[in-house]
């Protein structure tokens, strides 16, 4: 099965190298995406450009793919489900949640010179980055790609309620399924309150399991794809 891999902020497709290698060994077809503006030299890219790239990958799949969104890209994966509900076997949300209609995509940090650069590790101290050693942090920071302002501040538009019928797996790395369930029940993640088939799985890692636990992460994704 095709597994489309969409990295979060500051990441290009190479972030998935180890996960992809393990996924292939497990019999699946991983498709790591390098998004417009995040590795293809297009600093003026917009959220619509990134969604178009994801939808092109969905449409190119030989069969209904599993679409994996990491961190902020959980919203991109969910936008794909909104645009192609009949074409996606399952959405996997890793370390994040889809933004609601009308909300900015990812205006979390300061925009400078038309882009949102990696802000350093201070905002991520604690469970997010506890499993990344200093060498891993330096590698991440040196490779981090500033996210175009047109992506970070793009407005999320959701229009097709058939998205709620697409099965969703919520992978919980730096938080637990119990915590996620509490946020959903409290109405803090409105898009997930209406999902008809939602499952949650725990992953003992920080926010970037593709770097700290790639084999375990790949095996989890393979299990999800096998079930789909």
From TrEMBL:
GO terms for molecular function: hydrolase activity. Gene3D superfamilies: alpha/beta hydrolase (3.40.50.1820). Transmembrane segments: none annotated. The keyword Hydrolase applies. It comes from Streptomyces millisiae. This is Alpha/beta hydrolase. The keyword Hydrolase applies. Residues 3-219 form the AB hydrolase-1 domain. InterPro entries: AB_hydrolase_1 (IPR000073), AB_hydrolase_fold (IPR029058). Keywords: Hydrolase.
